[in-house]
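Regression test case RT-17, inverse folding.

Input:
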């Protein structure tokens, strides 16, 4: 069961800290018409912007600005909401907020306005999260897809699957009482086809959602290779800045350097690492240990090799330590020094790209491969900005549906029904229909104050 919104009036400065043309104090609660009257000396009119003086307890003006009044339930939170648009200076904003507290409001927690919107059924959990994602979006692509989630496109899809699952569960559970003809009954209702289709649909949704998650969090790309093969140069070339230190001395990059670049609106976190080699230098040793930690966490490893010498014996040592699950792109660098053309090859050890970090030739080829590895298909497909929490739930649902199909083949219908129930619960968690209190607390506490 969900927490009920408390009746307390909450208030917060909703605009970013600092000076601005206007600043907004937002208030939500019940009976706010009186609150507004006390604040401005006149009763408010719902949904009308009113020029007003905001008054302190003695009736002296603190600021003049616009007062907006939204009577619940027709508001963002579903309660009465007041927005005071004043002059955007930090002192004015603090005085206005203090006045609201004096009038009985308490300070809102981060995300509490949106939390109330969720608790009052103004939006579901996936939409509420999309509010935060829209605010946090670093790229246009991420903002667009957050907006799609916010207007409910993602939630609608999730609800469709849930309805399917409910249907199938009812069907399977209804047959349990008729052991003789249960399988025939399910066949007649096309239950198995529907289950297969559901699995395919979820599979597709999951891959789209993965892209959405990628849009927000980006792909972790680690540059790994012997000293001096050109890792720092490649990082610089990809980021378009002289960020890493490039020298002829082996062992220059002693620590881990990061750079976030965007390719097709997707953030790529490029991590340049200390060259991997045996060393007695203590500081370099620490750098190398960190490198291995980064490599274990990578989404993609760019394995750099000098194109002139190719893969040597010291490389084999590195490769024996590479984690097996992480995809690797072999980058043969410095082709400008050996008359090798830009090329993409399916080589012995996997994908190979021949390029030059110094001249930039072949860099586009590498960017494309990174996007491909990220599972990115730019063409027209709607991308949802799903969170890791959503992906987990979708994966869980998919596993349960796979199990249900397996149980169906075994004609173990009770167990099939149980798997369908697990799948439905997992799907429900996305939109918050089964949201546990602690889960909600975690989600909303990550919002900024005033949202
Ligand atoms: P790291 O130790 O792997 O990070 O290698 P650096 O990026 O520091 O490069 C080592 C040296 O190789 C520097 O002198 C670079 O200028 C040079 N270098 C790197 N990439 C290329 C390339 O594609 N072509 C040429 N000609 N030189 C390169
Ligand atoms: Zn380096």
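Golden output:
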């Amino acid at each position: 069961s969900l927490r009920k919104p408390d009746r307390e009036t909450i208030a917060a400065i909703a605009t970013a800290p600092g000076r601005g043309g206007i600043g907004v104090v937002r208030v939500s609660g019940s009976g706010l018409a009186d609150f507004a009257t006390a604040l401005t000396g006149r009763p408010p009119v719902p949904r009308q912007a009113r020029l007003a003086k905001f008054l302190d307890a003695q009736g002296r003006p603190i600021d003049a600005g616009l007062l907006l009044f939204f009577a619940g339930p027709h508001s963002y939170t579903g309660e009465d909401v007041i927005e005071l648009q004043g002059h955007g200076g930090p002192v004015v904003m603090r005085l206005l907020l203090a006045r609201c507290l004096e009038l009985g409001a308490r300070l809102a927690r981060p995300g509490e306005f949106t939390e109330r919107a969720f608790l009052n059924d103004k939006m579901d959990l996936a939409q509420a999260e999309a509010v935060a994602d829209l605010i946090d979006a670093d790229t246009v692509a991420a903002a667009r897809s957050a907006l799609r989630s916010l207007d409910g496109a993602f939630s609608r899809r999730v609800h469709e699957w849930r309805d399917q699952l409910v249907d199938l569960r009812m069907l399977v559970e209804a047959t349990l009482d008729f052991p003789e003809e249960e399988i025939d009954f399910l066949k007649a209702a096309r239950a198995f086809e529907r289950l297969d289709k559901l699995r395919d649909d979820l599979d597709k949704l999951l891959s789209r959602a993965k892209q959405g998650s990628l849009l927000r969090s980006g792909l972790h790309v680690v540059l790994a290779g012997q000293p001096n093969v050109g890792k720092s140069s490649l990082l610089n070339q990809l980021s378009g800045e002289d960020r890493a230190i490039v020298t002829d001395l082996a062992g220059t990059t002693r620590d881990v350097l990061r750079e976030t670049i965007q390719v097709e609106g997707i953030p790529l976190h490029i991590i340049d690492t200390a060259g991997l080699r045996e060393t007695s230098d203590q500081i370099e040793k620490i750098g190398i240990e960190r490198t291995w930690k980064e490599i274990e966490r990578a989404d993609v490893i760019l394995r750099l090799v000098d194109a002139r010498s190719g893969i040597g014996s010291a490389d084999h040592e590195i490769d024996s330590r590479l984690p097996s699950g992480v995809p690797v792109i072999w980058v043969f660098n410095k082709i400008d020094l050996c008359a090798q053309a830009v090329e993409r090859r399916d080589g012995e050890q996997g994908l190979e790209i021949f390029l030059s970090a110094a001249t930039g030739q072949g860099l586009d080829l590498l960017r494309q491969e990174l996007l491909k590895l990220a599972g990115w298909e730019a063409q027209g497909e709607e991308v949802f900005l799903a969170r890791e929490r959503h992906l987990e739930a979708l994966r869980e649902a998919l596993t349960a549906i796979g199990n249900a199909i397996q149980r169906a083949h075994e004609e173990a219908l009770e167990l099939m029904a149980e798997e369908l129930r697990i799948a439905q619960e997992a799907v429900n968690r996305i939109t918050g229909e089964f949201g546990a209190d602690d889960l909600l607390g975690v989600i909303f506490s990550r919002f900024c104050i005033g949202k």
